[in-house]
Amino acid sequence: MGEAALIDGKGFAAALRARIGTLAGDFAQATGRRPGLAVVLVGDDPASQVYVGAKGRACEEAGIASFEHRLPAETSEAELLTLVERLNRDPEVDGILVQMPLPGGLDEQAVIAAISPDKDVDGFHVINAGRLSVGQTGFVPCTPLGCLMLLKDRLGDLSGLDAVVIGRSNIVGKPMAQLLTDANATVTVAHSRTRNLADVVRRADIVVAAVGRPEMVRADWIKPGATVIDVGINRLPPAEGKEKGRLVGDVAFAEASAVAGAITPVPGGVGPMTIAVLLRNTLVAAHSHAGLEPPEGL
Ligand code: NDP
What we know:
With 298 residues, this protein is an alpha/beta fold. 41% of the residues lie in helices and 15% in strands. The chain has two domains: 31-118, Leucine Dehydrogenase, chain A, domain 1 (Rossmann fold, 3-Layer(aba) Sandwich), CATH 3.40.50.10860; 142-272, Rossmann fold, CATH 3.40.50. It contains ten helices and eleven strands. It has a six-stranded parallel sheet with strand order 1-11-8-7-5-6. A three-stranded parallel sheet has the order 3-2-4, with helices on both faces. A two-stranded antiparallel sheet has the order 9-10. The longest helix is centred in the N-terminal third of the chain and has 23 residues, at 9-31. The radius of gyration is 19 Å and the shape is globular. The site of NADPH dihydro-nicotinamide-adenine-dinucleotide phosphate has 25 residues, from helix 10.
């Protein structure tokens, strides 16, 4: 058995962002304004602050206006909903993202429901989940759409391939399964109640792991030559003398690489795709708000 090809999500995402930058420039020429993304952060969760900072920088680099709203942890739900309403009406804002998780006491579902579905670039609103489910055009959650892009880039046509998605969350597992079904793969969704998970995974030509358990998927779960997409981001406890532990995925990368045909690393695989697709969705939203055809090839 050889060594799996590395699926370079970081490189793919960089190329996608460069293309979005060009198209955002064309959009600004045509309309006299840049596409705009509003990012709302409530409270001071350190991981969320890092994500929000990264999203703002990625926007500016791609020629997308970034409007950051940082609110204190004590913000009431009514205040947050008022801000969302204002952003819904703001013609400079094409996409609205409220960074999750919200501090306790704030109802995440109510906040998502308040975002206009046509500015819901995260694709979390039930209207967009419904659109995906019945095959209508809408916004698809960024992480699974990024995974699909990597899979198509690697494998081309996915018709007839056996895919196993481990995880059934609304933001990753379920939309991933839907996208793979739409791409004509034969899809199994596994979760914490799945029996004989290793045997189920071993049947798959495509494995997407979105669990949140460090290195759970072992080499002997993987069919030789399979394509493995690792969505998991898990921080291990720090080694002695170190401040921070290592980041690992849901797949035991080193051993799985000896069996898989291709695999995403963590970090540098799926993670960078999530932000690139957020920019893509914002650009698509901007075109739709301006009455323009969506840009091609994104
Ligand atoms: P959730 O916690 O919402 O969902 C986890 C899923 O895994 C659930 O469906 C759960 O099953 C299933 N699961 C838990 N334990 C097992 C087990 N032992 N065997 C099989 N299935 C199991 O997580 P998310 O979907 O939000 O995220 C998954 C991972 O992806 C996390 O590590 C997260 O950090 C990462 N992530 C990465 C992103 C990126 O940009 N790269 C973006 C989003 C998430 P059940 O439903 O039965 O409880």
